[in-house]
Amino acid sequence: MTLRDMALEKMRAAIIAGHFQSGDRLVERPLCDQLGVSRSVVRETIRYLEAEGLVEILPNKGPIVAKLDWENAQQIYEIRMLLETSAAQKCAELAKDGDKKKLGKALGQLKSAYSSGETNDLFEATTLFYQCIFEISGQNVAWEVVQRLNGRISRLRAMTLGTRDRHEAGYKRMEKIYSAIDSNDADAAAAAIKVHLTEAANIAKTLLTAELSKSEK
Q1: Where among 47, 65, 83 does a domain terminate?
Q2: What parts of the sequence cross the membrane (predicted)?
């Protein structure tokens, strides 16, 4: 792993975890000291994060952590709803025994991640679970779109999982998605995805709306 890769991983994780808040300025010199890299590496890292939608470059101000508001979050959930519902349906229709075994293994890793409470492990296991669904469904282009949104998806996921109800319900929702695919029930798979994402979107809306109201006071 290169210095840039390590810096990118650390910066991305810090933004997703909320160590850098929406609107925070990203100043080169402190970042160089914190990451132990040169200014050129920091600049390159910021460019990558900008492409992922985690950083914005403002005129006369420079890079800041991209603001996370309900208007943008809603669009992300709508895109996910379309792509993930379609992938889950197709996956349920096409899944063979070997595919189900692979997805079941990914679900097992996800269960362990939920039990451990390690944020990075949970994000990696969740991404792997969805990746299996998209690969089995054969929807590779759709998965590329999801990957481009992954930074912002993870940021929203970190926020919603911070609520106790969502953390406890999250794995159960994934189990239902898996169960539907394991039964080759396309309608049930689509319904499970819709319930899962609707629940997450409602929590995100409540949190982001409350945050906006607080900032306006």
Answers
A1: 65
A2: none
28 and 80 in a single domain? The answer is: no
Mean pLDDT value of segment 180-201: 97
Mean pLDDT of all residues in 207-212: 83
> Does 101 share its domain with 198?
yes
52, 80: one domain: no
The predicted-structure confidence for 35-51, as pLDDT tens digits, reads as follows: 999 999 999 999 999 99
Cβ-count burial of 109 within 10 angstroms (0-12 exposed, 13-18 middle, 19+ buried)? middle
Domain holding 60, by residue range, is 3-65
Global pTM value: 0.88
For 141-161, how does the pLDDT look when each residue is reduced to its tens digit (9 = 90+)?
999 999 999 999 999 988 888
